[in-house]
Amino acid sequence: MKNILSGIFAAAFALSASAAQAQDKPPLKIGGILDMSSLYADITGPGSETAAKMAVEDFGGEVLGRKIQVLAADHLNKADLSGNIARDMLDNQGVEMIYDVAASATALAAGEIAKARNKIIIFNGPGSIRLSNEACGPYTVHYVFDTFGQANVTGLAAVKSGLDTWFFLTADYAFGQDLEKDTSNVVTKTGGKVVGSVRHPLNTSDFSSFLLQAQASKAKVIGLANAGGDTVNAIKQAAEFGIMKGGQKVSPLLAFVTDIDSIGLETAQGLLLAEAFYWDMNDETRAFSKRFMERVKRPPTSAQAGVYSSVTHYLKAVKAAGTTDAAAVMKVMKETPINDFFAKNGKIREDGRMIHDMYLFEVKKPSESKGRWDDYKLLATVPGSEAFQSLEQSRCPLVKK
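The chain above was modelled as a monomer; its predicted structure follows.
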């Protein structure tokens, strides 16, 4: 009996020692740099933070005996602030990985900080093609979409359908400029023509002067090289100007289901748009989206779904590598295919671009919709190898040619 009791006490002591050791280990911190309060808040913002927390909870809340902690900060759409937040997270707060970084100028700033410190940074909300080209890094991942993929999927379909003259309304910063450039290339290579463009400041409330120029151009398509609140305001004001009724098509080159909900199907019906994810595509997307909606009260955008997928992929790689060392973790991340509700047979290339299918949708007419958020009908699935820039075209210094 004495031996049995001593054995029980020894086992209990070992367990308590193991628990104490796990508690002694610092938490594994991942940090989101987000637009929590401005024009991209619905696309990323609190929803991205929630998606990251869901990924951590579903993973079990800890890895390598360390609790996982999710941080988030608001960059206020200021590149210098984004850089400062990244520096503070990595230098002072012990963050091992940065996720999302909504908006391209802010992402480029944070990316340089992470690159200098050899830390992993995963972009879900920003779109600039520069993030996997000139600004690429060995520990940088561009996960959800980019300006090349958006332009390729939307522009190609539009020109092939006869919408072959374009005028651009462009947000005057890295993302907008890249989106206009990439779409212009697709339009002209497919036999179309760009008849003009105008640039507007970020977070514009009055698009009237820009829309008048677009209307006067007589272009068949007015391409919106912007996002978030700018896209919503431009489309609403274009409708007020009677531009769509006048026969011109407005094409949002980056739009999310939250944008379409803000605009309303009466105004948005017939719009063509490219997306990396839609909540109502299949049983897997609906199952995740139902859980997300219970917390956020609306379906996830592609950026938010991408946050969940990428955080999960990162944590699995940390577990498999047995370390948080960036080189070891990134090696596993690039070697391991991504198969979840967000992507099937997804793969992170050497330039950091995560390759996955893209989708071309048309916005439903009000009569076709069964209710709120039932906004899209699928027109085409474009394989990732066709949607995204090829490695041969890459300007990333890491790509061996």
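The chain has 14 helices and 15 strands.
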